[in-house]
């Protein structure tokens, strides 16, 4: 099905694994205009098929792999692709945005998206070359870890001249094969980490997908896009976050800032500071261990680190892994985290959920609820525990279920740190309560990015009052919608940090920055107007290059207001699909440790006032008291007609 | 003695993560900002300042035993 819009390849393939049948899936230009791509396109497809009765491990579930129109367009950090499915971990739809090469090569193969359904009768891997789909027996690679799998696949894609055909690939490791509920899908060294997408692929008996081809992404206005892209690259390189902090320190550079602001989760989120934080900080990593920076295709930020493990150069840990396998379990040995990070990727386990499940188990053991042998700061055997989880052996079989299910069995729900069944990221929200709201309302569960990442205002980039609830409901909605759209378009969320004007970041002590910090809690009504009537923002913002880039790539009109509206549509669409699976206000919850126990006994505000925040947030979103989108809203967003809900 | 700790990209620029100053040599934060290695005064003025874990201004008077933290705004995770 051809498209009049640039940036798209105009083709979506549906692959029935049970029958090994391939067909073109109809996706119209009207749907492209409304649902863009990435996670929103995937939510539309999932919403058209899921009724609320399906199970994650069933032939009725779908694994939807989507790119966005910006993927492969040459725009900064535009190699992203998304994987969405009904999550075995949460029971709701999950979406997982990933970098690397696969998205780019899926488009080179001529496809915007793949929809996988059914279940292979034996382990299989799929080769896609220029729209042609070939099913291969995966008996030889089933059981392999992710690095070994990808090397074996490259061997299979070797040309007659001995060179490996240029390709992008995704695969699962033993954890996905064994249906660990938080197993991930790996692409090169990048990971589609959250929500158990790897387990769904494992249930489908699909080991890997390789994409290659020689198709080109056609950009609507190439001349303008080239000029705009050059300007955009320059802007990102000059910005203090995307041009300095992230390239020099990676995401790990946040550890010290989080420590100073009391948002560094420590000992299973008991504290917001870790005494030994310097030993597991981004500065320590950069000064003593980082070999070289790495980045995804067309990315000027290059946030990835490279470290050495057992004489081999491998990807260094991201912030989340560093914190949760550092202070989270009271471990100050940075080199052990490098090793575990590598092992978890090789096994195909989500480092965030795995680390939090371990820290829950340590606390349950400490409190006498579950005699499992795991203790805080005693971490010598963790490599074996990770293997046991991936292969479902002994205690690993229990840990493979995640902290929510374990707390239901052994008790300790107050300190099983998850939202909707997905473990939280590394930011301790009692001193960043807006992020607490984000965790609770994120469609995929305890995610900081899908939750709006308000912590960037609450002490990291800016210094808004960390514990006030004022304005945070409205700001959370705005940020969630912005990030939703960036993700849907196929770009990295880190490009959004340049949204904050350079002077505010460069001069935190200037009078105007202090004024912004003071004013932010009073901006609720103004932000509410923008959220409610985004059409008034019928312009392009000089600090937000995404809208013009989107226009030049696709040919669709896209002002800042349109951009927010598209994000709002995507967020509400996921919420509406989740409604069928029982989501409501009660499910937008956090464990009592975060909402009822003070982080600092001397500070009565150091907990997440979740009910207050939710009330404002639901009102801002136009949701009812049950936390569900009103029918009028769905109609306004063209979800009810477009998504057949 | 006053302990100064530097984090973030400011630490990479300074080439050191920590140093000490005699409380008799620096009366307040403003004077301390002249002593950060490889860092101009202009650059130092743009760092977030914490004294004993609490936000502080440049006129904040320093005393023996104080810990001063300097860091740059950060984001992305």
Give the count of helical stretches of chain A.
Answer: 27
CATH class of chain B: Alpha Beta
Termini Cα gap of chain B: 36 Å
DSSP helix fraction of chain A: 25-40%
Shape of chain A: globular
Class per helix and strand makeup of chain B = alpha+beta
DSSP summary, beta strand count of chain A: 16
| CATH fold topology of chain B | Ubiquitin-like (UB roll)
Which CATH architecture of the largest domain in chain A would you pick?
Orthogonal Bundle
Approximate helicity band of chain B: 10-25%
CATH superfamily of chain B: Beta-grasp domain
**Mean pLDDT metric of chain A:** 97
Counting helices, strands and paired strands, the structural category of chain A is alpha+beta
What Rg of chain B is obtained from the alpha carbons, in whole angstroms?
12 Å
Specify the biggest β-sheet of chain A. Answer: 6 strands, mixed
Average pLDDT reading of chain B: 93
CATH topology of the largest domain in chain A: the name is Aldehyde Ferredoxin Oxidoreductase Protein, subunit A, domain 3
Helix-strand blueprint:
The complex is a heterodimer of chains A (645) and B (77).
Chain A: E1 12-16, E2 21-24, H1 29-35, H2 38-49, E3 62-67, E4 81-86, E5 93-98, H3 102-108, E6 113-117, E7 124-129, E8 132-137, H4 146-156, E9 168-171, H5 174-177, E10 185-187, E11 190-192, H6 197-203, E12 206-212, H7 222-238, H8 240-249, H9 254-260, H10 282-289, E13 306-309, E14 312-315, H11 319-324, H12 334-347, H13 351-366, H14 382-390, H15 395-399, H16 402-410, E15 418-419, E16 422-423, H17 433-441, H18 472-489, H19 502-506, H20 511-519, H21 524-532, H22 546-554, H23 560-580, H24 592-595, H25 610-621, H26 631-636, H27 639-642
Parallel strand pairs in A: 1-6, 7-12
Antiparallel strand pairs in A: 1-2, 3-4, 3-6, 4-5, 7-8, 9-12, 10-11, 13-14, 15-16
Helix pairs in contact in A: 2-18, 2-23, 7-8, 7-22, 12-14, 13-16, 17-18, 17-25, 18-21, 18-23, 18-25
Chain B: E1 2-6, H1 9-14, E2 18-21, H2 29-32, H3 41-45, E3 48-51, E4 54-55, E5 67-71
Parallel strand pairs in B: 1-5
Antiparallel strand pairs in B: 1-2, 3-4, 3-5
């Amino acid at each position: 099905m051809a498209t009049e819009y640039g940036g798209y390849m105009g083709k979506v393939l549906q692959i029935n694994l049970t029958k090994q049948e391939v067909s073109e899936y109809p996706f119209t230009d009207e749907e492209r205009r409304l649902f863009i791509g990435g996670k929103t396109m995937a939510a539309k497809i999932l919403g058209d098929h899921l009724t609320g009765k399906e199970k994650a491990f069933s032939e009725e579930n779908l694994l939807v792999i989507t790119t966005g129109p910006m993927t492969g367009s040459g725009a900064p950090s535009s190699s992203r692709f998304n994987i969405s499915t009904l999550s075995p971990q949460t029971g709701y739809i999950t979406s997982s945005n990933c970098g690397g090469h696969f998205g780019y090569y899926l488009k080179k193969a001529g496809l915007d998206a793949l929809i996988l359904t059914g279940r292979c009768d034996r382990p299989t891997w799929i080769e896609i070359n220029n729209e042609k789909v070939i099913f291969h027996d995966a008996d030889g690679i089933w059981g392999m870890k992710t690095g070994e799998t990808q090397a074996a696949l490259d061997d299979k894609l070797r040309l007659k001249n001995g060179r490996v055909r240029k390709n992008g690939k995704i695969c699962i490791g033993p954890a996905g094969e064994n249906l660990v509920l938080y197993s991930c899908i790996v692409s090169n060294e990048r990971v589609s980490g959250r929500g158990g997408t790897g387990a769904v692929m494992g249930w489908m008996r699909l080991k890997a997908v390789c994409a290659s081809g020689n198709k080109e992404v056609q950009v609507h206005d190439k001349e303008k896009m080239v000029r705009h892209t050059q300007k955009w690259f320059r802007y990102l390189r000059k910005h203090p976050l995307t041009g300095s902090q992230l390239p020099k320190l990676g995401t790990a550079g946040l550890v010290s800032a989080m420590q100073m602001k009391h948002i560094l989760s420590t000992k299973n989120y008991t504290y917001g500071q870790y005494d030994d934080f310097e030993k597991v900080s981004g500065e320590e990593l950069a000064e003593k261990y980082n070999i070289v920076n790495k980045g995804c295709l067309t990315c000027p930020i290059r946030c990835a680190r490279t470290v050495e493990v057992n004489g081999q150069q491998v990807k260094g840990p991201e912030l989340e892994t560093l914190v949760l396998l550092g202070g989270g379990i009271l471990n100050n040995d940075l080199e052990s985290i490098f090793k575990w990070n590598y092992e978890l990727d090789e096994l195909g386990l989500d480092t965030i959920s795995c680390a939090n499940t371990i820290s829950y188990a340590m606390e349950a053991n400490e409190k006498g609820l579950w005699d499992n042998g795991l203790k805080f700061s005693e971490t010598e055997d963790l490599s074996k525990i990770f293997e046991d989880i991936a292969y479902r052996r002994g205690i690993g079989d229990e840990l493979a279920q995640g902290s929510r299910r374990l707390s239901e069995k052994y008790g300790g729900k107050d300190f099983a740190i998850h939202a909707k069944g997905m473990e939280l990221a590394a930011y301790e929200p009692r001193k960043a309560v807006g992020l607490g709201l984000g965790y609770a309302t994120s469609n995929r569960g305890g995610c900081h990015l899908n939750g709006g990442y308000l912590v960037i205002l609450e002490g990291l980039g800016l210094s808004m009052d960390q514990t006030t609830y004022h304005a945070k409901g409205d700001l959370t909605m705005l940020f969630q919608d912005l990030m939703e759209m960036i993700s849907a378009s196929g770009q990295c969320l880190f490009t959004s940090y340049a949204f904050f004007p350079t002077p505010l970041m460069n001069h935190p002590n200037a009078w105007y920055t202090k004024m912004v910090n003071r004013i932010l809690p009073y901006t609720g009504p103004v932000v509410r107007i923008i959220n409610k009537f985004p059409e008034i923002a019928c312009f392009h913002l000089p600090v937000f290059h995404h809208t013009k880039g989107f226009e030049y790539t696709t040919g669709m009109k896209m002002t800042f207001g349109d951009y927010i509206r598209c994000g709002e549509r995507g967020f509400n669409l996921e919420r509406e699909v989740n409604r069928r699976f029982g989501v409501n206000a009660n499910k937008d919850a956090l464990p009592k440790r975060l909402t009822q126990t003070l982080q600092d006994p001397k500070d009565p505000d150091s907990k997440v006032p979740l009910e207050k925040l939710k009330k404002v947030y639901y009102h801002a979103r136009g949701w009812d008291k049950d936390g569900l989108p009103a029918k009028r809203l769905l109609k306004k967003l063209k979800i009810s007609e477009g998504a057949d809900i | 003695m006053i302990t100064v700790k530097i984090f973030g990209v400011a630490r990479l620029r300074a080439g050191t993560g920590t140093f000490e100053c005699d409380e008799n040599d620096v009366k307040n934060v403003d004077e301390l900002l002249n002593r950060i290695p490889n860092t101009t005064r202009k650059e130092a003025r743009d760092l977030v300042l914490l004294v004993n874990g609490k936000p502080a201004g440049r006129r904040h008077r320093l005393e023996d035993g104080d810990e001063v933290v300097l860091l740059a705004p950060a984001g992305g995770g």
